[in-house]
Amino acid sequence: MSSKAGLTEKDDFLREYKYLFELAKIFERELVQLVTMVKNDSDSTGLDFMVLWAPLVDQLGCKIKAAVDKSDKILCCIEAIKKPKLRTVLQLAYIEGITQEEIAERMNYSTRQIQRLQIQALELVEIDR
Fold first, then answer.
1. Which of 28, 43, 61, 75 has the fewest Cβ atoms surrounding its Cβ within 10 A?
2. Minimum mean pLDDT among 19-28, 81-90, 113-122: which range?
3. What is the pLDDT of residues 75-96, one digit of tens each?
4. pTM of the predicted model, to two decimals?
5. Is the separation of the CB atoms in 117 and 74 below 8 Å?
């Protein structure tokens, strides 16, 4: 059985999914705005601002890739859970971001049973950082 600290670490790791997903969307929006702005500036002034902005564009691209890569790792950790019921609890909690009460209602279990299932599922998660 995993220690409480180990379960907390796994819980924290899986909770990053929603944050990383939102972060990637923000970076993508910023990248599109930046490229549009640079293109408009280049067209209007005749100067090639893309050369000046290329490092920032690359940096945003790298941040998007890092967020997506870590999100993929989180998904893989969840998908590696063999028992469908436990995998579903993790998907609902960490990917969809719904509460234990909502999961219990959806799966027709008590909230306490969902808590137990989530702990069982977290014990099976293997984090490969």
1. 43
2. 19-28
3. 999 999 999 999 999 999 999 9
4. 0.76
5. no
